[in-house]
Amino acid sequence: MSLVSGTKLGPYEIVEPLGAGGMGEVYRGRDKRLERTVAIKVLPAHLSNDPVRKQRFEHEAKTISSLNHPHICVLHDVGHQDGLDYLVMECLEGETLAKRLERGPLLLEQALKYSAQIADALDKAHRSGVIHRDLKPGNIMITPSGAKLLDFGLAKPAAPVLSGATQTTLGPRSPMTDEGTIVGTFQYMSPEQVDGKELDGRSDIFSLGAVLYEMVTGKKAFEGKSQLSVASSILEKDPQPISTVKPTTPPTLDHVVSRCLAKNPEERWQSGRDLKWALELAIGPRPPMPARASWRSRWVIGAVAVIIASAALWSFWPRPQPVERIMQFRIEPPPGADFIFGVGGGNAISPDGRMAAFVAASAGSPKLWIRSLDSMVARELPGTDNAQFPFWSPDSKSLGFFGNGRLQRLDLTGGPPVTLAPAPNGRGAAWSSKGAIIFAPNAGTGLWKVSENGGPFTHLTVVQQAQGENTHRWPLFLADGQRFIYYARGENAESGSLYLSSLEQPQARALIAKGIYPAAAYSPARGKHSEYLYWLRERTLMAQPFDSQHGRFSGDAVAVSGAEAISSVSSAPGNVRPSVSVSNDGTILFGTGSDRYQLTWFNREGKVLSTVGQPDRYVSLRLSPNGKSIATVLADSGSHSDLWLVDLSRAIPSRLTFMEAFGTGAWSPDAQRIGYHILLGRRLLAMRTSGGGQEETVLQSQSPVYLNDWSPDARYLVYTQLSREGRNELWLLSLNEGGKPIPFLQTSFNALQGEVSPDSKWIAYTSDESGGLDEVYATSFPSSGAKWRVSSGGGSFPRWSRNGKELFYRALNGMLMVASVREAPHSLEFGTPSALFRISEPQGIVCYPYDIGLDGQRILTLVPSRVGGESPSLTVLVSWDAKAKP
Q: β-strand 327-331 against 873-878: which pairing, if any?
């Protein structure tokens, strides 16, 4: 039915009709609330009266309304009135691509530009779980701002076969013999769509290839006199190459389009992002075609002379020089997995610039993966469970990494990983062309050296505590394989310095003294590529010309074009290396994604119950004993982090400290005070939660300390202290004896993350004494005695329920586990742990990503937020400095 001008549909008023089709009638309308012009599509009766299609329509409409993209027509609203279902969309000025194609093919640059925009729009939709399923010129609007994609598959069957505008649904491989029928959308369907198979985003890639073919040539990719002949063409034939139809087109375009139109989805571009990158490469400048020579001559000898002269002239004629262009493309995580950046993860590009190594986690433990940059498939590396901070050998044939308390090496030609040295809490390594590997085995020690083949490992640098240093980490070898750069830092980011040293003469020289973040990467001079040292300024990657021969900077730092949104991988970037690596030829690999987390309540089945406040740069959390507040560490956009309190009744954070507090915050039993530590500091501090008093230093240590817990009986603070050998030890600070430090667990293994039971009789903690893997144990408190192992196959971050009858912990695969606890005479009995749901990766060894509610049924966690940022991905950036070269 047609609606007349002035008809009201909810808050919208019909102005005039714009068009009609099988999916309904479209009107120009007016939103009376916001005083804006909109497009209103009134759906046909067969859709509104079909409950299944109507339910699907409403579900997809909600999904599509969240697709915020400059090349997707915005869906504003969905409504129902007087038996009519309608959509309210952005009103676009322009013409459909179908209308434009009536005048002939587009200019090549226009076709590539619009196709790249649509590919980007499809990528956004596919990553949001939406498939278009009806991509055709009639659903693409050409506007002054570019191409806009319309009608995202609303209310369509899973695998429709459409005949013209009548939307007749046919079964798989139905006979289509209506001679003379005008074929519309059918000509843009993928083979699997014609076959009635289940579709994914690659079906849209095929359709876009058919649209691109038509934009460039003015001809449809698949034609026929009947639907059957068109179906046969789609399933069995390839269109004539574009370069044959239009010889002036670049040969690379044939490859791009033919890969879109591959019959097997596995052989197509696997994502809109990959297709967009390929199209953008094809947009680049092309050398002009030489004009045809025109001449006549009566004598053969004259003809020969002209040919020879022309050849000689052509040999001296200036040819267009190839233009080096900045290029970038994304790497998505393996199916069902997520990238992990920072502590517990990492990524690295090979020195030859051909491969990327990265850490990703799915249902199991985080593992190391590699992917060739000219391939669409990544390969998991066996034996690399819990790998972090990968680094490459100089010849790009082997990988080093930290995992399960060890520095390991893996040859890509085959064989299991080989242990090179113990490294309980590794913080970076570098592989020299001279056969040596230098590494930081712990968070609070100097650098060590070991042969690439294993053997003895020895000290290389010594932390100068008298000069305020707490750590040496993140080494980078220079081109000669002898000299290296490393990062040293004290209690705050302003104390960070870069030093230059050598394997032969380890005496360090300050390269930049104070106030610098760790160096992210180094690339030597290769061909036209200059020598640079890379570092991070907030979230922008900076490159500074470097003279390795004299060991000094040779120019001012410049922002790396295309790398302005490096993922923040820690609340203290000055302490954790950014997710950036650079090959010898200057190709950059870096992580992007949101660095914000949402405080979220879950039930034990993993269902979201509610959220607290807005997403922010939360790092850890701890509920107060009365359950009214959350202590959390919040990072700013630079290098600092501090302790904040969140009142659950108002959900608004209020800042408590102003000096780089870290950890989880340990509440006093009466919730009136909170204890904390400084990252890599040697002090434990306490402050009133009202914020009315000054901070109080309760412990001054000779070694870095990390606060774990405040015992419920108010007698002790539990903290971790680094030994001289770099091991984590559990200590107690007696509050009833004037702040006396008492060693609690001092062994040849690491012990950390101590958590006292509610009755103050037991303590749970994490240790690697079982053979490298962190496991959760429990023992008596405040004097250790018999101990019980709670976890199996790895565990950390233990938390007691408030009644002491359950113990929670995080398994290595990210699952939140819970074990029942029963007290027997002088002992504890633990039930078999059961899995609840997966929780986020912690952002440091002392950063708890969860806590348990007072009732033991609700769990508060940090959930990565997609608000204000994309899901984590890796970006490859090629020739970033092309514009900067003379």
A: antiparallel
E strand or H helix at 836, and its extent? Answer: strand 834-838
Query: Is the pTM value of this prediction over 0.85?
Result: no
Both tokens of 127, joined, read 């990553």
Length of the chain as a residue count: 886
3-state SS of 36-84 is EEEEEEECCHHHHCCHHHHHHHHHHHHHHHCCCCCCECCEEEEEEECCE
* Selection from 304, 136, 289 nearest residue 206 by Cα: 136
Q: Find the range with the poorest average confidence among 423-437, 525-539, 850-864.
A: 525-539
Q: Is the Cβ–Cβ distance between 750 and 424 less than 8 Å?
A: yes
Using the Cα atoms of residue 374, residue 377, residue 381 and residue 385 in order, give the sign of their dihedral.
Answer: positive
User: How far is Cα 503 from Cα 480, in angstroms, rounded to an integer?
Assistant: 11
Beta strands in 625-710 (DSSP E): 629-635, 641-647, 652-655, 661-667, 673-678, 683-688, 696-700, 705-710
Question: What percent of the chain is modeled with pLDDT above 70?
Answer: 80
What is the spatial distance between Cα 76 and Cα 39, in angstroms, rounded to a whole number? Answer: 10
Residue 161's φ and ψ, nearest 5 degrees, are: -120, 115
Which of 4-13, 190-199, 315-324, 551-560 bottoms out in mean pLDDT, i.e. has the lowest?
A: 315-324
CB 437 within 8 Å of CB 430: yes
Q: How many CB atoms lie within 10 A of CB 412?
A: 17
Which residues are bridge partners to 42 per DSSP? 25, 86
Residues annotated as catalytic are 134
Per the DSSP assignment, residues forming a β-bridge with 517 are none
The secondary element (H helix, E strand) that includes residue 278 is helix 272-283
Contact residues for 258 (Cβ-Cβ < 8 A; gap 6+): 238, 241
Cα–Cα distance for residue pair 259/209, rounded to 1 Å = 8
pLDDT tens across 43-92, in order? 776 666 666 666 666 766 776 677 778 899 888 888 888 878 888 888 88
The phi and psi torsions of 736 (rounded to 5 degrees) equal: -90, -5
What are the φ/ψ torsions at residue 56 (nearest 5 degrees)? -65, -40
Q: Is the pLDDT of residue 690 over 80?
A: yes
CA distances to 248, 290, 629 from 314, in Å? 21, 10, 80
Side-chain-side CA neighbours of 325 within 13 Å: the count stands at: 13
Instruction: List the beta strands (DSSP E) in 92-162.
Output: 95-96, 140-143, 146-149
Do 343 and 427 touch, CB atoms closer than 8 A? no
Q: Which residue has the higher pLDDT, 630 or 303?
A: 630
The CB density around residue 315, as the number of other CB atoms within 10 Å, is: 7
